[in-house]
Amino acid sequence: MYTSRKIVPLSIKNSLQWVQNYSTWTKKPFTHLSEGAKRSDILATNVIQSFLEKGLFNDARVLFDEMTERDVVMWTAMICGYTSCNHHVHAWTLFCEMLNKGVNPNAFTLSNGLKACKTMQCLACGGLVHGVAIKHRLEGSLYVDNALLDMYATCCVSMEDACSGFRDMKKKNMVTWTTLITGYTHRGDVYGGLQFFREMLLANTGSVIKNGLESNLPVMNSIVDMYSRCGFLSEANEYFHEMTEKDLIMWNTFWL
Question: Contact, 62 vs 34, CB < 8 A?
């Protein structure tokens, strides 16, 4: 899996080990042990994130593997690092390892696990994460619910499960609506996407959209794509020229 395993710099390794063993050396009460372990987790997680941001995955993983104490934040940082760079199989493997070790996930862990499932096009894995979310009472978190919606919209044969999840959501934000609309347009069902776009406007979201739409690239990309696919070129042109920022996806959508 890792062809060239590098050694963690000795200064970092010694610092982490010192913090972890602080209470053992000084024979302090248990409260000091907890504090020392917490400092060690924070320091290690920061170093791991620094490695990941620089694309040093091997270095990050070596340090991660050598830590004797790993909290959910450290696990999540490593999983997120993999998903952010499209190493989704590694992310899923690590997610499963975390669960097997009895570490309880948080909302960010689950959303990254679901991102891996979506990209791997694995509905069975996504269903497993959904079960974990229910078990740990993390349904209702926007991070989790939006990620579930995205996974079902991508992996299922139809949009039925995604729509069912959407209807059950007590909280919705711009990402929620955009995810559902994009799910329809990516399947070629532009009219289904437009139906939910109209519903979004009727649900008093119009004012939110009008105030923030021009600077929200994912939302604008989806809307221009919808209008273009439906043949409503004048509407697509209007939204295109209202945008304060345009990326390559937008230019391709508009001109193609």
Answer: no
DSSP 116-174: HHHHHT-HHHHHHHHHHHHHTT-BTBHHHHHHHHHHHHHHSSSSHHHHHHHHH-S---H
- pLDDT in tens for each of the 256 residues of the chain? 444 444 455 545 554 554 445 434 444 433 343 444 455 677 788 888 888 888 888 888 988 988 888 899 999 999 999 999 899 999 999 999 999 999 999 999 999 999 999 999 999 999 999 999 999 999 999 999 999 999 999 999 999 999 999 999 999 988 899 899 989 988 888 888 888 887 887 675 554 455 555 556 766 777 777 777 666 677 777 767 766 666 676 666 665 5
CB 201 within 8 A of CB 209: yes
Q: 86-114 b/e with 16+ CB inside 10 Å = b? A: ebbebbbebbeebbeeebebbbbbbbbbb
Burial category of 24 from C-beta neighbours within 10 Å (exposed 0-12, middle 13-18, buried 19 and up): exposed
Helix (H) or strand (E) holding 49: helix 30-53
Tokens (6 digits) for 165:
């999840």
User: In this structure, what token pair is assigned to residue 122?
Assistant: 């694995």
Residue linked to tokens 């890792």 = 2
The residues near 154 (Cβ < 8 Å, ≥ 6 apart) are 118, 121, 183, 186
